[in-house]
Amino acid sequence: MTLSSNSKRYRGRFAPSPTGPLHFGSLLAALASYLDARAHHGTWLVRIDDLDPAREDPTAAASILHTLDCYGLHWDEDIRYQSTRSDAYKAALQQLIQQQRAFPCACSRKQLGNQVHHGICSTLQTNDIAWRFLCPSGELRVTDTLQTTQTYELATDIGDFVIRRRDGLWSYQLAVAVDDADQGITHVLRGVDLIDSTARQILLQQALGYSSPIYSHIPVANEANGQKLSKQNLALPLTTASTANSLWLALSWLKQAPPAELRGAKIAELLAWAIPNWQAKVLTGLTSMPAPADFQRQP
Ligand code: GLU
Questions:
Q1: Exposed / middle / buried, residue 109 (Cβ in 10 Å: 0-12, 13-18, 19+)
Q2: CB 190 near ligand 1, within 6 Å
Q3: 0.90 exceeded by pTM
Q4: Which of 64, 160, 237, 290 could link 21 by a cystine bridge, Cβ 3.0 to 4.6 Å?
Q5: Between 243-253 and 24-39, two packed helices, what is the crossing angle to 10 degrees?
Q6: Residue 137 banded pLDDT, cuts 50, 70, 90
Q7: Count of CB atoms within 10 A of residue 86's CB?
């Protein structure tokens, strides 16, 4: 068998923001991206998206890594921390400025209301400004291996989005585009709540001359009231007790149908079954499902 010359070796990643401990929803994203990478004999990386100290919990990164380890989700290569990557983001911003794809903006939130920003406003101010990506006009179609193709009217649906904030912090969109490219990520598998970010990341990849990964967005897990499990909504943290049972529930939630006799099996045994049996396609078109009762907040 020969591999086609353009088949790049699979590199995937899980990229949590360290705003709190992992919950069942983040376990699903971590597990699904891990299984997809391992099933493709690929590399799986963990990156800590620590771009916003005010929103972060200083103990969260260590707790997330410890929890991943307890679930047997062992990563390859060194952990990358986005807080150490300012020079790379600065270089990307400089490139966009040189290409006239980024401009300084002093518009206030009040001035913009809920309109998207479209077209250079070019302030002469040099401080207290944000930098925006100059969004092209036209349509962008974003394909996904699990969700329907999303079509965006760029001027009205996306607009000129912020890539460096007024307070000097880097935007999630710029940092992810730069790091996914720098780390050679070929496949991004994450929750469908991030699907609209994909368009922005692809626009940045195109402007910066990067290739785009293949995207797959899995459904999100909901609380009983229909809200997504999230740190902001105070989702229950995962405990590191009964990890094997939680992993079995996560595999079931991901519709992998683990055999009943594996209930009670150890983590290593569950993963050894799950990797060769991984089927992402069973999640096609699904956008949310209730979390198992044990992982929902109690009313
Ligand atoms: N750090 C982002 C989050 O925790 C996810 C980044 C990504 O997967 O692109 O929501």
A1: exposed
A2: yes
A3: yes
A4: 237
A5: 70
A6: very high
A7: 14
**Does 177 map to a domain?**
yes
Residue 273 falls within a domain, yes or no? Answer: yes
Q: How far is the CA of 286 from the centre of ligand 1 (A)?
A: 19
Q: Which atom of ligand 1 is nearest to the CA of 19?
A: 4
CATH of the domain at 274: 3.40.50.620
Q: Is the CB of 50 under 6 A from ligand 1?
A: no
How do residues 161-212 score in pLDDT, each as one tens digit? 999 999 999 999 999 999 999 999 999 999 999 999 999 999 999 999 999 9
What span, in angstroms and rounded, lies between the C-alpha atoms of 179 and 88? Answer: 9
- Centroid of ligand 1 to alpha carbon of 279 (angstroms): 22
> Residue 15: CB within 6 Å of ligand 1?
yes
- The CA 120 to ligand 1 mean position distance, Å, reads 29
* The last residue of a domain, from among 132, 165, 183: 183
- Probe residue for ligand 1, chosen from 144, 194, 215 as the CB with the greatest number of ligand atoms within 8 Å: 194
Overall number of domains in the chain: 2
Domain that holds residue 231: 11-83+219-299
Q: How many CA atoms lie less than 13 Å away from 56 in the CB half-sphere?
A: 19
Q: Which atom of ligand 1 is nearest to the CA of 29?
A: 8
Residue nearest to atom 6 of ligand 1 (CA): 15
Domain finish residue from 183, 204, 236:
183
Q: What's the whole-number average pLDDT of the chain?
A: 93
Torsion of CA 228, 230, 236, 238, to 10 degrees: 110
Task: Decide if 62 is inside a domain.
Answer: yes
**Measured from the CB, is residue 17 less than 6 Å from ligand 1?**
yes
Index of the ligand 1 atom closest to the CA of residue 26: 4
216-267 per-position pLDDT tens digit: 999 999 999 999 998 888 889 998 889 999 999 999 999 999 999 999 999 9
Distance 17 CA to ligand 1 centre (A): 6
21 and 70 fall within a common domain: yes
